Amino acid sequence: MSLLSRTAAATLLTMLSAAPLYAEALDVRIGYLQWVPDKGPVLSNIIPEPEDAGLRGAELGLADNQTTGRFLGQNYELETELTGSHEEILAAFEAMHDKGTRLFVINAPAQTVQAIMGRAGNNTLVFNAGAKDDALRTAECHVNLLHTVPSYAMLTDSLGQWLNMRRWTDLFLITGPTEEDKAWADAFRRSAKRFGLKIVQDKPWTFDADLRRTAAKELPAFTQARAYDAVVVADVRGDFGEYVPFNTWLPRPVVGTQGMVPVTWHRVVEAWGAAQLQNRFRALAERDMNGDDYAAWAAVRSIGTAVTDLKVADANEIRDFLFTDKFQLAAFKGRSLSFRDWNGQLRQPIPLVHPRSLVAQAPFEGFLHPNTEMDTLGFDKPESQCRING
Amino acid sequence: MKSLFKHAALAAMIGLSGPAMAGLAYVSNEKDNTLSVIDTETHQVIDTIEVGARPRGILLSKDFTKLYICASDDDTVQVLDLATRKIIDTLPSGEDPEQFALHPNNRHLYIANEDDAIVTVVDVQTKDVLAQIDVGIEPEGMAVSPDGKWAVNTSETTSMLHWINTETFEIEKNVVVGQRPRHVEFTKDSKIAWASAEIGGTVHIFDVDTIEEIKQIDFKIRGVPQDRVQPVGIQLTSDGKYAFVALGPSNHVAVVDAQTYEVLDYLLVGSRVWQLALDKDEKFLYTTNGVSGDVSVIDVDQLKVIKSIKVGRYPWGVVIDPTS
Predict the structure, then answer these.
(1) Distance of residue B238 Cα from the nearest chain A Cα, in angstroms
(2) Which of A 172-211 lie inside 8 A of B, CB atoms?
(3) Which of A233, A261, A289 is at the close of a domain?
(4) What residue numbers bound the domain in which A138 lies?
(5) Is the same domain home to A282 and A232?
(6) Is A214 at the interface with chain B, CB within 8 A?
(7) Residue B227 is nearest to which of A6, A273, A372, comparing CB atoms?
(8) A132 and A65, same structural domain?
(9) Residue A346 CA, distance from chain mean position
(10) pTM for this one?
């Protein structure tokens, strides 16, 4: 009897204390849209990229938001669409927008992101979780467009800082033929200037031989030069770059898009609680978490972090909150992350990895900045024309 | 008769070894799967004990005869007998136990299961799982109030304190604090709770009667970027004078006036300082410095770092046995 009444009293107490929270039940709908153009045939096709890269990160972000929301009477919903073309993703965006969705995470090329922004209108918040193009951060900014994926410049600046730190300053640069390769190489040339590096050879990759048979013969001759400290490869889709390490004329390390690589995220990142994020992701997706997954996760978590504090789901209110001092994204990189107020880029440390280990994490000590060392990576305020917060 | 003699001999042996190792500190080494045993008189490591995989949270039984160890990657809590320094038992813990807290009844162990978003309550005598309580993502910090009424769990990614009624095992209140809350510490009288938020860079002070935040403490260390100031472990002196707060990769421990909540000083210790422990007389404070792989010793009267002791790789938790 006495036990029963105690249990009843406790249940009542729980309900009473929970009631005020759930009275303000709130629905938060997020749209995730993906279009990743086919990269074409590549020589190195041994380890294919997962087709749901990005999507599974958004799903994990949603699960994380839900768990928090459960205690606050906030319910999150993720609508996802993996599309096959520029036109398809625009149609999918418009369909979701018409139904009232105002929060979006987009994993698509820069041109597609631009087209979506042309259709977004006011009171819509879009997170770019796929396009690394610098132009989206320096000139072609939008008030309601934020970037959780790092720019090419942030990645190559991380590499440039590291090369400077190691005093490996004379570099042999090989650039692939695609637009992305050229964008990466342009970003690296800028980083080289910023960090006092010298590109002693700057050669485009023009060979079309199958390197599985001929790498050992082709590459030593291709990388012949009097002296360099490291070879830098710009091969974003992974066509020939995998064959450069150990096949260079001089016995030198390979860095860039292959060898040691600056990345958004990688399975070897484990410090700062990252092991837990990696475990949660593996349990969900049955594969390792990559950079696209991380960028989508960070976008969905940014929304969740804002909603937890604001207790509203309005896109404009969330956007404004994300630029206040109150917003800090705990994102397993050892620092609290925030958005740059001039161009909406999420400032973040960049891991430098090789396939089985973390080498280092930029920014490095000694590269100073008046506000935060993280702003030594990528386009700082004076270098960008964007002023999305006036 | 014979058994009596054996006991007497054992007692004598323990008695003999006792004075030589007055005050032992136990440190869990996350990446070595060991505990370092430090003699707090001489400040020397006197033993290294092999334990389960990825030991993190450690705590002493209320009678100081046993040490409980979260062996995170073995998904178990190990029980170390302090007299023999042997693992004598394991407890069901749920997956990936990280931190835990023992109720004053010396039986109910509250374990934060980091990967499962659950707090598991285990009876350490019967080994029964009494309850599994759903909490936020990445439950980490666990504390039970000295009066036994509250168990508080912090969930890192959800950024909440979950206040669990220890009679019903139900959550009675969830409170959002700064980003990535790591640790909770109650005052001796159970009236005030201190909670650290690692990424928020803050410490939140709660009035336990009302479960309302009454104060937020911020930290600023000259010459250290603000985003490296990451509060984790907290220790309160029993006289109510000081709170010590470990500030992670800023490599400093903050000294806070526990009455006015004013930050009095910052003490430079080893790299990535996480957990703290006071010795019996509260004369010395020990800090685990994960990246530099050592333990700093702080003189509490002088508020000075007097020594650093090399331990295993990535020291995580530290406790001090006041009876040894």
Answers:
(1) 31
(2) none
(3) A261
(4) 17-150+266-348
(5) no
(6) no
(7) A372
(8) yes
(9) 9
(10) 0.86
Q: In what order do the strands lie in the sheet with B129-134?
A: B97-102, B108-113, B118-123, B129-134
DSSP H or E run through A93: helix A86-98
Instruction: Please report, in tens digits, the pLDDT of each residue of chain B (324 residues total).
Output: 444 444 544 444 444 444 444 589 999 999 999 999 999 999 999 999 999 999 999 999 999 999 999 998 999 999 999 999 999 999 988 888 989 999 999 999 999 998 888 999 999 999 999 999 999 999 999 999 999 999 999 999 999 999 999 999 999 999 999 999 999 999 999 999 999 999 999 999 999 999 999 999 999 999 898 889 999 999 999 999 999 999 999 999 999 999 999 999 999 999 999 999 999 999 999 999 999 999 999 999 999 999 999 999 999 999 999 987
Same domain, A132 and A229: no
Q: State the CATH number of the domain containing residue A114.
A: 3.40.50.2300
CB contact under 8 A, B174 and A330: no
Residue B138 is nearest to which of A13, A21, A276, comparing CB atoms? Answer: A276
User: What is the count of structural domains for chain A?
Assistant: 2
Provide the number of CB pairs (under 8 Å) joining chain A to chain B: 84
Does residue A377 lie within any of the structural domains?
no
Whether A122 maps to a domain, the answer reads yes
Contacts of B201 in chain A (CB under 8 A): 336
Chain A neighbours among B 217-256 (CB < 8 Å)? 225-228, 249
A11/A343 Cα distance (integer angstroms): 50
**Residue A207, C-beta contacts closer than 8 angstroms, at least 6 positions apart:** A218, A222, A240
- Domain assignment present for residue A99? The answer is yes
| A17 Cβ under 8 Å from any chain B Cβ | yes
A219 plus A181 within the same structural domain: yes
Q: Cβ A64–B114 below 8 Å, yes or no? A: no
Contact criterion met (CB below 8 Å) for B202 and B231: yes
Q: Measured between alpha carbons, how far is A371 from A310 in angstroms, rounded to an integer?
A: 26
The amino acid sitting at A193 is K
Residue B176: list chain A partners with CB under 8 A.
Answer: 72, 308-309
Please give the Cα distance from B319 to B87 (Å, whole number).
Answer: 17
DSSP B221-288: -TTS-GGG-----EEE-TTSSEEEEE-BTT-EEEEEETTT--EEEEEE-SSSEEEEEE-TTS-EEEEE
Does A285 share its domain with A139? yes
Q: Which residue in B has a C-alpha nearest to residue A281's C-alpha?
A: B115
Chain A within 8 Å of B13 (Cβ-Cβ)? no
